[in-house]
Amino acid sequence: MLTLVVNPIAGNGLAQRTHERVRALLESRGIEYRSFVTQAPGDAEALCRDFVREGAEAVAVLGGDGTLNEVVNGLALSDVTCLLVPCGTGNDFAKAMRLPKEPLAALEAQLSAAPGRIDLGRMNDHVFANVSGIGFDVEVLRQTVRFKRLGRGILPYLCGVIAALFRFSPLCARVSFDGGLETDMRLTILSIGNGQYIGGGMKAVPDAVIDDGLLDAIAVDGIDSRLKIATLLPRFISGTHARLPLAHVTRCKALTIHCPGMTVNLDGELIPCDVAKFVLLENALRVRKCAQNA
Q: Which part of the chain is the DAGKc domain (predicted)?
């Protein structure tokens, strides 16, 4: 049986509208299903923990990256298969999975695919599927919320970027990779990727791969000027910021960031902390790997 988890407000109601189409598709194929509609933040994670305990076979999440984040926190390190029906604003992890953009096409591709596993990341007690970050990225996310009414895709994010330029200042942090020596940095941005994309298609971590057993980290250090940050935005969109002289690119299984009072972006969720300990969870999520994402 397939269990559907639906966030009715995801994608300005797209998930709710897609729910009816998904039900019709499953009924036409003779696939048994049940549906659970979330009512509040945290519901999807709590439901998925229950599904793991009861031995559910598969969960299909109808929502965006935020809903998916809750689901993977409930399903991580279990044998329950996670299917993604992308219905959010950015759908960045669907891009990392190389799924079709259209929600039903994405579901159909996964229904006929072979099972496999992908990696996840964990920051302290929080699991993430896609990209985590501190610095400018966090301020952009705070501002982007104001512009979600502009619709899906990259436009709300770009508006958030412009607004963030007038509010951001770099963070003084101490960073270590794989338990090595600590390095003091004045961070403009530090992105830690299992996946590649944020903000509806911006390549924050361009070389990250979701099943390679490593996290990719890109730190841009020491850029204070708003004008300089603004001139780098096209490179951040295309992923070429990783080649900047001030960019430090590392592939690792763990990293630790000390920065009192910082806020960490985990798949679009903001988590305040003083110390962020990241580790890779290899093969932590069971999925369906269709031909496009094998």
A: 1-126
Encoded tokens for 195: 């996946």
Percent of all residues in the chain with a pLDDT value above 70, rounded to a whole number = 96
For residue 269, indicate whether it is catalytic. yes
- CA distances 228 to 101, 160, 186, 188, 223, Å, are 34, 17, 15, 11, 7
Q: Is 114 helix (H, G, I), strand (E, B) or coil?
A: strand
Neighbours of 36 (CB within 10 A): 16
The domain at 128-282 falls in which architecture?
Answer: Sandwich (2.60)
pTM of the full predicted structure? 0.89
The partner residues of 273 in beta bridges, in order of sequence, read: 262
Residues found in the chain: 294
Distances from the Cα of 162 to the Cα of 95, 221, 225, 233, 244, angstroms? 24, 20, 14, 10, 21
Which of 45, 108, 269, 282 is the catalytic position? Answer: 269
CB distance 192 to 121 below 8 Å: yes
What confidence tens digit (pLDDT) does each residue in 147-200 have?
776 666 667 778 888 888 888 888 999 999 999 989 999 998 999 999 999 877
All CATH 2.60.200.40 domain ranges in the chain, comma separated: 128-282
CA 267 – CA 113 distance, rounded (Å):
25
Q: What is the pLDDT of residues 229-275, one digit of tens each?
A: 888 878 888 888 888 888 899 999 999 999 999 999 999 889 999 99
State how far the Cα of 100 lies from the Cα of 112, in Å rounded to an integer. 14
CATH 3.40.50.150 fits 2-112, yes or no: no
